[in-house]
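To the team - fe (ii) ion complex, inputs and output below.
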Amino acid sequence: MALKKFIVCGDNHGDLVSGEATKKLIKFRDEWMPRGGHLLHVGDLFDMGSLRKGASDEERQRGVSEDFQAGIRFLDIGFKFLTLGNHDARLWQAAETSSNGILREHCADLVQATEREFKKRKIQWVPYHIGRYLTLPEGGPKFLHGFVAGQYPATGMHSTYGDCIFGHVHSPSTFNAKRIDGGQAFSLGCMADIEAMSYAERHPGRLKWRNGFGFGLICEKTGRWNFWNVSKDPETGDWITPMGIL
Ligand SMILES: [Fe+2]
Ligand SMILES: [Fe+2]
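Output:
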């Protein structure tokens, strides 16, 4: 039975990216998937905090350039599949609707530059839209950014999308369906530096946030798949995988 490997991550949030998480991901890719497999990104490549509705003066002063460049550098990891997230969508939205003409034109340039990068790097991508998701050529789960927060996001996402792997919630979790034919949904940890994400300081959901990514195997013939989360233990700082410490 031919099994293909895949690695999924998301939520690096531009220049808020965690250098440690990036190093762990690259090391894991090189050691576990040295002969290639699928690399997927499930959104929030950029942070675009300065474009947030209700952004503070401090957030607006950050601008978008460093955030943009850090997001593009993150693509060097080698993703071939990507879905945009709600933070990325701010850029596309500002490029179309900002009432500040200079900002609108600048964002339109960055949108064009991003789409050129995706094309140059042969990345298959989808916008942030409730009806859009990625799948692998072998089949398997849907890959999305995610639209549901709350206490049990994997349960909520499974009820809408069926088998899926998603980001957005910055917190690894699993849902196992009580069905004769199985069914699972997984949320991922984030690749951003959680301490640097000051906008969520008063958000209780942040207590569940962890750094992490995930990996899986998919059968080339049947599309049958398995998936596991990797996450950093906030107490010990160890990166825990089902095979042990990374
Ligand atoms: Fe995010
Ligand atoms: Fe998000």
